């Protein structure tokens, strides 16, 4: 839970966040549907340690997956930690066990950012990156709820910001054309992958700078500009009550 939710003024800021950010933020918590939790070998029964046959276990809901803080600094490819029990064949007792992804440190190169990065990845994420032919394509094609990593979303935001940079488009036209299908407006790219706390801080900073800019302009100039615009548009000015109150004794 965001600590800003305890402050009323911060809760009001959430209502003023951009609509595209709120939409993507909700999608980030959408459960992954293309994950299979069971290995279907065609056998409806399983044999226990006492040589008895039992129907295989099938759950209506997926098992609870734990995503520790370390997963946010790596690329686990949607994998997490699952806790459960296993049965010891010798004694027939159940003992707790934890299953986690197979992790390894790997060196990746970003074609858009033009730099090498040493990242801890799971075997599943590594296979996905190889299948999509590069780290850039993996981050751009994979939904945020499947990436599920602050590191991955941070790199994705950098890539999107780089793609909309006019200087990059002039200096690297071949690479820009290669990733042209993933280009989004700069205003949206700046918000990709931000946590709720980061988005609130960014929105508060934008509003503060806007208020500061408006305060730096004298009211005389602002009101004069508004009056000229209304006169040019043919709007009716309610000056009669003002004149009557000014010259009345």
UniProtKB/TrEMBL annotation:
GO terms for cellular component: mitochondrial large ribosomal subunit. Coiled coil: none annotated. GO terms for molecular function: structural constituent of ribosome. Belongs to the bacterial ribosomal protein bL28 family. Keywords: Ribonucleoprotein, Ribosomal protein. It comes from the Eukaryota. SUPFAM superfamilies: L28p-like. This is Large ribosomal subunit protein bL28m.
